[in-house]
Amino acid sequence: MRGDLVRKLLARVLTTGLAVLAFLVVALTGATGWGLAVAVTALAAATWERRVRPTADGLAESVLVAAGILVGYARRLDAGFDPALAATALVLLGLVLLVGPLRDAGALEIRAANLPVRSWTPLVAARLGDALLVLLALVALAAGLALPAWVALVAALLVGAGWGAVGLDLARRRFRPSPGGGPVGRALRRHQPEFLLYFSAPPGSEYQVTMWLPYLERIGRPFLVLLREPEFLPTVAAATRAPVVFCPTLKTMDEALVPSLRAAFYVNHGAKNSHCIRFSQLTHVQLHHGDSDKAPSANPVSAIFDRIFVAGPAAIERYARAGVEIPAEKFVVVGRPQVEAIEVRREPVTGLAHPTVLYTPTWTGHHADADYCSLPVAETVIRRLLDRGATVILRAHPYTTQNPASARQLARLTELLSADRARTGRSHLWGAAAGRELTLTECVNRADALVSDVSGVISDWLYSGKPYAVTDMGVDGEHFVERFPLAGSGYVLRRDMSNVDEVLTELLDTDPKVAARWATRSRYLGDFPAGSYAEVFLDAARRELAPDRTAPAPRAGASLPSPAA
């Protein structure tokens, strides 16, 4: 997070500073060649800033650079007033002023992947800023070579003609839409999707979608993925063969939600879910992106959905324990299909000379009462594990680096593991090797024991039958297990680490809770046959898509945020 901020600030300073410097050098000195060189450098800085800050507004900098280049051009030609150069200046001014509005208008258009349509206008509109920078660089080159002004004018007019075509098409889409809908809507009608996966979340959250895509595909019915943030489009599209549609506004959602749809699935409680819930003809099903005893797993907002698919009876009890009243008929126990590939180990895993331990610290959460992160005390745990000859797989939550303190603590742990690997040869894993190159299931299958914070990882791990320890980072003390019942079948590490050696002995050597763990496994993950475990979810989803399925009753009394574009 801090590195991101530094890059953005540096890009802003470089772009603005070089644009001002270029204009001053050309306008106030005789060093025209140097001024043009600085202008080109400013354009390069602006290009970098667009990569670091895609929504950066470079209007003032573009005006300064363009003015500096044109003044330098006039000096190079040294021919008095040149009508072609004046016309070039007017065209450039128009382009500079139009780039922002056209880009913003294009950003309001629906975009799609994995569909046989090519909607070129929104894509081109998103690249107009880059096109302007390239044009200014070409004009600067023409000025540096003292080419006739008509060369720059022709280049500017060609770019302007392209922009005019983009503007006219965007205006036509806005003010004279096709009666049959746009190309994306027509393609979706031909595709005849029966359900959609709706997704809106902060950057870095695509794992919430990708964990469900293989199982949605196994339902065997046509579907689509509807996104509300554009940055997820390429990642999600690469993870599925289903159509993926980015809808920036409620109007574009109206185009994407075609009549063949019967159900909508959700993987979180994002605020923009209300934009889709308003389509009352659909059955709305909450899947969640994990099962844990965290407070968000019993979110009262769940009540707005027609169905709530949960892993096991424990999830239903969790809502009741939190005082969230939801009719029993809304809950459907479907297991946690993502665990089907986890290897179940029924024999004891105690007394291993060199055990492999998976450590999965969670992030700090949006609020203090949801901060279960153990990174502030993790160094003690890691050192004790290394002293016991353990190989450590460190798999941090994707949001960890959003907190600068957590990022520093994580870096310290990787330093410890790197030094130990160099000294002992043990194959510790961390960073991309544990978080991207391996799936969670692969990490679970490699490990003999788990140390985790309160998170959904424990529920998935529970399927393996292997022992686990849970960190108590709050002030619950003896009430910790009451708040987080899943910890009752594990070994609880106190925040001050005063019992770390005792816990690691139970975890790796004696494991007295093995019997309790199997009983908890049924409560949290359902008591379904291993050979057909995921079929329980698939059958439940297919029932929601049955043509004779009764339409959901109106959600009277459900409080929804007001939809906003």
Automatic annotation (TrEMBL):
Entry annotated with the keyword Transmembrane helix: yes
What top-level branch of life does the organism fall under? Bacteria
Identify one Pfam family in the record.
Answer: Glyphos_transf
Q: Which residues cross the membrane?
A: 20-46, 83-102, 123-143, 149-168
Q: Name one GO cellular component term.
A: membrane
InterPro entries with a match to the protein in the record: Glycerophosphate_synth (IPR007554), TagF_C (IPR043148)
GO molecular function terms attached to this record:
CDP-glycerol glycerophosphotransferase activity
Instruction: Write the record's keywords in alphabetical order, separated by commas.
Output: Membrane, Transferase, Transmembrane, Transmembrane helix
Return the protein name.
CDP-Glycerol:Poly(Glycerophosphate) glycerophosphotransferase
Q: What is the species of this protein?
A: Micromonospora chaiyaphumensis
Q: What is the lineage of its organism?
A: Bacteria, Bacillati, Actinomycetota, Actinomycetes, Micromonosporales
